[in-house]
């Protein structure tokens, strides 16, 4: 794992990690071709590593939101919070899942400029409001999500993903996690479909 | 479980919940004398319930921070985020763990007014900064924590608790979770030690 | 009077105060069972003490707003300004006048979560806007108050109470006034009516 | 009195006012050559009129701060709060008391640009901080005032004037009080001393 | 040229300036009766002087907006940015072009209080929003300008003037440019039309 | 020129443009291999086009700042202002001039995370402060730039570039200018030096 995965805490050796962490990290490394630095960074504290990735997995696995919708929320929230790690790493995931080489740069800058349907604008309106001024989020905001066509449980999930990345952004910023160089370019080639 | 535990999503029946949720909820109910509404609220989605409480348990169980230090961070962060549920429920926990009937009201209002040692002022300076302006948190903030006497891993934990309650506050505010009436008064009687 | 009534200026002895201050303070002490610290704190400067309480008395005595409506404005404004003294002392008064043990904690955190009629939501919308962004308060805000059923003079009074507690909060925060311990628990027992 | 003294409440007739208001207003009119609109505006509610001007008089009469120091605080606070009435009316008073035709325009814009001694910069640093972020005002701010040469009671007075104009600005903005045309030009001629 | 035209960079001698600068400055001095300090300040760097005044001239010369409309935008933007130089210098120009001795003080304080038609309120709504929160400016804001009666090109010009004075304010504040004393009083005498 | 170069005003045909615009645009197109959309967008109004690019050219041509230093300021300012066009277009220029494929993504997110020398941190501290809170920029900020090794004229230039892009960002956001697709990927390949 990259010693420079984060700057404010030491990055452990893969060999010193508990079995379950090592297995998952090897699996991710296999899949991506490199070890995403968030796996290396959180490994500083295995109990937090497990909690973090279990929560993450619940959010992306147990939902009827499309994966690219989840990543849209993440990148819009991270853009507003100014999180370098999440902008770049989830920007790459968004380009891949949405098959759109431009969308991530739009959401990092200002989701209002993005080339997305009205339904997703509404989704990001609420995600960003919950990030910036949670005190003002009201029943009317949830109603807008329902009116846009999201199911009740999807409304919950939109709130949950937005909330989780308010944790995630802060941990990445607190520890100064650094995105792998690969993330900067992944998914930038144009798609044909 | 209280139907009014949260206002924007339906609260499930205890009997309809998976075994593992039911057991833990019954245990908590036994201990507290009532079911804290956050357990009822998150049960709307069992996969998130598990992820949320596992993360919470990792934060309070696997740390050398004292439990009242953890609750101080939680209440200061929740005060800044204006989270009604967390102010009141964790305010009660703080009164109990710190054996201090006044501290929670101080932290909800303005942690700078609290009757706490310099070390804890520094801890809350960083927790609140990570909450309000994470983009400005720097190595010098972490150094202040080390200089105040916190170990490297405790510094991580302070960041982790602060980050997690930026998730927790947002979920409680998004779902409009309501603190149990009991929390408003718990731990308000003066202590003798 | 409590030496710890405020932290940044000396608290005078009751015996050294002018006759009119002493009489009123003894009267208040009689009524409450203790001397509210704001009376002790402002006594540092008798001319300001008189001006402050005369203004306060005009606001609560010469109005057709109910006293619990006045206290609702005070606690919502103080919550937004993060004033420890006023949150706690007027929180107690609100619990007593509104005969509601929960309302103060709701308003301190976020008035939007409070269990109150629409009319009072509108009242607090304007009080909080006048506190946070007075530059944006317009004729339309006053019209909303009139539409909610407040008389012209009550509209004035809502503005006046909100404005006065923007003074009061700042003096309490500047001098670091400390709420009496009694205020933390007063009015927290449930009501039957 | 000018019907256009304020825009959101009716301005009463001088003849309909209680004796004590009428006398003072006539006195002020005599002195200034016109009736300052704040006297007309507050007369809407005589009990508040009395409370407001008594408080104001205590602030300017019972202090060892120079009158132009008091007006400097008022204009800097009003500039930050964007209060049209107070910028203009107290801008005129400041020009007269400070015998400086430029200072008011400097303080309305940005007190940091003003041609004033370091002692007054410190005074306005605290006045503006208490206006914008009272939650952050600490003992160190009061110490800076003491170090700059202000007596303990003057420190109190600086806090008191700043706080009072956070009331005053809000009432003027709420009622949309309009400065008399005379105030725009008073004291703009250069001085010789 | 006034040595005190700006405080943070040296003001060059008129005689040392390139021919084209000198000619224009002499022309302006002729017209105004004094050399406006912005001409002296920008002369520190002739290439920027030319760029700045060419841009300025394009904005005021190639537009169907009335000159007093242009100056209204400038003063409202400068008021929000708290720019001492622009408040005072363009305040004077606005008084002259609008033949209104009060309007500049209204716009410096809070454009919402100004005695102007609805069309100009809308114009300033957009100018101030583009200044304070450009990230939120949307197609609907431009539509409001069109609905208010501005032509497509005038909409562009409103955006352009607002944007340019976000440059201009910052340069004046960075260099601490000082308005000429004459600007404080120009145009303050009442008009008869 | 791309019809989609901006969304809120029509993009003119190259053939309809005045000679001087056409020549420069053909030159730029030659050099870049495509017409950067800002040239197409500003061509809506030729007088503004000329003013804008003349100012831009003065900033990058008449300075002893390195071109990559200029682009660092631009990208940091644009990141803070959330300008999609400038983030992406100047991000590409920065990658090319700095021969650094990662720096632009760092500056867009949070310049404090960037891998740059202390001197450039100081430069961006001031550029971002002048962008976000110009009212607070003081002589001490300019002194920090001098202490970091910038000449007096370079200090001016840092202020000037920061100010100009507060104009540029706002025009791009007002007109909804869209970065050419090429900008998203330019300069992302690693360098060898």
Automatic annotation (TrEMBL), chains A, B, C, D, E, F:
Q: Which InterPro entries match?
A: AhpD-like, AhpD_core, CMD-like, Uncharacterised_peroxidase-rel
Q: Which Gene3D superfamilies match?
A: AhpD-like
A GO term, aspect molecular function: peroxiredoxin activity
The chain's coiled-coil residues are none
> Which residues belong to any copy of the Carboxymuconolactone decarboxylase-like domain?
50-95
Question: SUPFAM superfamilies under this entry?
Answer: AhpD-like
Source organism, top-level taxon:
Archaea
Its protein name is Carboxymuconolactone decarboxylase-like domain-containing protein
């Amino acid at each position: 794992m990259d010693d420079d995965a984060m700057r404010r805490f030491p990055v452990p050796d893969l060999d010193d990690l508990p079995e379950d962490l090592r297995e998952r990290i090897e699996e991710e490394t296999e899949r991506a071709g490199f070890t995403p630095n968030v796996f290396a960074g959180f490994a500083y504290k295995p109990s937090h590593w497990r909690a973090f990735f279990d929560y993450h997995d619940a959010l992306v696995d147990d939902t009827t939101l499309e994966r690219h919708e989840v990543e849209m929320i993440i990148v819009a929230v991270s853009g507003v919070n100014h999180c370098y790690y999440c902008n770049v790493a989830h920007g790459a995931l968004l380009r891949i899942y949405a098959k759109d080489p431009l969308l991530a740069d739009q959401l990092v800058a200002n989701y209002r400029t993005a080339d997305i349907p009205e339904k997703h604008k509404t989704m990001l309106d609420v995600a960003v409001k919950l990030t910036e001024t949670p005190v003002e989020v009201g029943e009317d905001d949830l109603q807008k999500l329902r009116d846009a066509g999201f199911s009740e449980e999807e409304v919950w999930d939109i709130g949950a993903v937005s909330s989780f990345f308010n944790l995630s952004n802060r941990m990445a910023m607190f520890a100064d996690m650094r995105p792998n160089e690969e993330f900067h370019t992944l998914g930038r080639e144009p798609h044909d479909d």
